[in-house]
Amino acid sequence: MSNATYTIPEWQGLNDDPYTAASNPNGQNMPNQGPANMLNPRYTLHTSNEFFDPRLPIEWIVDGVIAAGTVSVFFGDAGSKKTWALLDMAVCVLHGKNWINFKTTKKNVLYIDEDMGKSDLDNRGEMVWRGHKAPSTPFMWYTSLESIDLGSKADQIAFESLIRNANAGLVIVDIFRNVIPGRDENSSKDLQPVLFALRKIAEKTGAAIVLIHHENKSKGYSGSTAIKGSVDLMVQVESKSGSDYVVFRILKSRKTKQFDFNATANFMSDSFWLSTNQNPIKPLGTYNKAERYTLLYLFNNGESSSKDILDGIDPLIDPAPKSVSNAMSKLKNEGLVERTDNGATTAPGTYKLTPKGEQEAENL
């Protein structure tokens, strides 16, 4: 069945019903009768008959995670290894080999670097290539520090041309903040047009576009809720500095269910690769926001007074002081936090994590 594209007719009578023979006895320009007056229509109008057209199954670029023709966000804190993980994914997709334990579909890859610069990208790229013992061909296409502005219509057209010229099935943009210069990432008004344009480019080219993005202070993604609302997939990448344990949490997906998976980051002197890690992942939501704040504060700052813990609260993003005070008491009762002073009630208490608490905080 072919799509029908035509203009909405101008009906003579304001009170006429265009869908009845009485109102339009000759059946002229009726929507169900196909194209009419096709003079550069502004919109493409479809019919419900297309609901029953044959549809191809989902083409997975990374099986069960990233689909062709979608826009994804992978976000994480500095040091979470998100860029390493996406470069690792790029090499695996380029050569059609498993990424961690997910099958991939062999595709050309385009990497848009607006963060590292060519020298650092070349160094990291060489390490990942060596880590996978990958041959030099096929090669990955990339740009570096080209000042791409995806809020600009001209650059959106140029970006689509890059994808088509590279025949890319996977496009990685590093980092999202730097391809929307002059725009406020906290403003849905600024971001929605950009994200909508990326959705259209992904659908038109069939490429999976992955945006690397930052984390905020409360361990969520930075910026407007329009980001999560607009993309097809959102993945949080978590890893402590100095740790080889990387956790990926799917927080939204239009194509698959939400789940967590993990990997081991293997750093050698001249190589890097991700491998499967069978350690269990602690689910999000085990602790409320105040409990997470308390555990992470003590994990990052060490032994602290209750005053220090409460003074560290950012009122814009962190839980209320009363909630944190209650969380400290609850965590103490659960054996995750302990007092290190003599327990005098005339002075602020001093607290630190127990070994069990340190383990739980590490998982957060």
Written overview of the protein:
The protein has helices at residues 82-95, 118-131, 153-166, 188-205, 226-230, 289-301, 306-311, 321-333, 355-363, and strands at residues 60-62, 66-67, 71-76, 108-113, 141-144, 168-174, 208-214, 233-238, 245-253, 260-267, 272-276, 304-305, 337-339, 350-353. With 364 residues, the protein is of the alpha/beta class. The chain folds into 3 domains: 1-55, no CATH class; 60-276, Rossmann fold (3-Layer(aba) Sandwich); 289-363, Winged helix-like DNA-binding domain superfamily/Winged helix DNA-binding domain (Arc Repressor Mutant, subunit A), CATH 1.10.10. The chain has 9 helices and 14 strands. Strand 1 (60-62) and strand 2 (66-67) form a beta hairpin. The strands form 3 sheets. The protein has a 9-stranded mixed β-sheet with strand order 5-4-6-7-3-8-9-10-11, sandwiched between helices. Strands 12-14-13 form a 3-stranded antiparallel β-sheet. The relative contact order is 0.11. Helix 6 crosses helix 9. Mean pLDDT is 86; it is low at 4-33. The longest helix is centred in the middle third of the chain and has 18 residues, at 188-205. It is globular, with a radius of gyration of 26 Å. It is 29% helix and 20% strand.
Structural class: alpha/beta
What is the number of E strands? 14
Contiguous helical run count: 9
Please name the CATH topology of the largest domain: Rossmann fold
* CATH homologous superfamily placement of the largest domain: P-loop containing nucleotide triphosphate hydrolases
Low-confidence stretches: 4-33
Could you estimate the helical fraction of the residues in percent? 25-40%
What is the average of the pLDDT values?
86
- What percent strand? 15-25%
Distance between the termini: 51 Å
Shape label: globular
User: What is the CATH architecture term of the largest domain?
Assistant: 3-Layer(aba) Sandwich
Task: Give me the Rg, rounded.
Answer: 26 Å
Physical arrangement of strands within the biggest beta sheet: 5-4-6-7-3-8-9-10-11
Spell the H/E element sequence: EEEHEHEHEHEHEEEEHEHHEEH
